[in-house]
């Protein structure tokens, strides 16, 4: 039996229930579907922002690593040329 959330009290209810057993709100299939879809959208939005922040952190890390390697190569060349 699929479960859904009541759009009023947000308790888990059967998707086949006519009313919410907790608050008594009459359940309309479109309300349950809309509420379920909106909660899925909120979860996906949060995950998208989280992945975007990881991506920004990774770009910063890669940039620092590249500049560090360039600096290391330049220092190595300077030390080799000084000999």
Structure description:
The mean pLDDT is 80. With 83 residues, the protein is mostly helical. A two-stranded antiparallel ribbon has the order 1-2. Helix content is 65%, strand content 7%. It has one domain. The chain contains one helix and two strands, in the order E-E-H.
Describe the structure concisely for a colleague.
This protein is mainly alpha-helical and 83 residues long.
What order do the helices and strands come in, and which of them pair?
Blueprint: E1 3-5, E2 12-14, H1 29-82
Total count of domains? 1
> Beta-strand percentage?
5-15%
Low-confidence stretches: none
Largest sheet: 2 strands, antiparallel
Mean pLDDT: 80
What is the gyration radius calculated from CA atoms?
27 Å
H/E order of the elements? EEH
> Helix segment count?
1
Give a quick set of tags describing it.
83 residues, mainly alpha, two-stranded antiparallel ribbon, 2 strands
